[in-house]
Design brief:
Length: 180
């Protein structure tokens, strides 16, 4: 009888729910971004001279009419791909000026420590801006979008505040970690 009373007391205080113990979250960071380009050497030069990437490795696959270059800067790795017969989206869909209108990847984002300083540096280098530097209060980011030498969109952003974190309680004040 005492066990039944104890069980009822626990159910009454927890609402019949229990706290859920979740396993630790995996770290999920992009490790490689591949970009198809019309002229490999032009793209390598642009990413080196404009954004400071260094060539890590090159490969040629003549049977596949394919040349590759892997570039690195800090934790970012790019794979530039030149393959015979590839075409830019604007040739496939004339008049397309916004990659987000195509399904799939629309842009690449790089997190930086000082977006304003980098924007000034890129302007001095003559880089084309798709979106000028702006503060976005909704996303708490200072960001801009540039175009690489082939028209690919590159978003450069800097966090303005603390990163978004899911609340531990819902709008009613109930512990969101509980499972019912």
């Amino acid at each position: 009888m005492a066990r039944a009373v104890s069980l009822l007391a626990v159910l009454a205080t927890t609402g019949g729910c229990h706290l859920v113990s979740h396993p630790p979250r995996q770290t999920f960071v992009p490790s490689l971004i591949a970009i198809s380009v019309p002229r490999l050497e032009d793209a390598v030069t642009w990413y080196h001279d404009i954004l400071g990437f260094e060539v890590e490795k090159r490969s040629v696959f003549p049977d596949y009419h394919l040349r590759l270059a892997w570039l690195v800067r800090d934790q970012a790795r790019l794979e530039l791909i030149e393959i015979q017969g590839s075409r830019p989206p604007s040739e496939v869909l004339p008049g397309l000026d916004n990659p987000a209108l195509l399904q799939g990847f629309g842009k690449i984002g790089f997190r930086v420590t000082d977006a304003a300083q980098l924007a000034s540096e890129l302007k001095r280098k003559g880089v084309r801006f798709q979106v000028e530097l702006r503060d976005d209060l909704e996303t708490q980011a200072r960001a801009f979008i540039i175009l690489d030498n082939n028209g690919n969109w590159l978003e450069i952003w800097e966090p303005m505040g603390p990163p978004f974190r899911a609340p531990e309680t819902d709008m009613m004040g109930i512990d969101a970690r509980r499972s019912c």
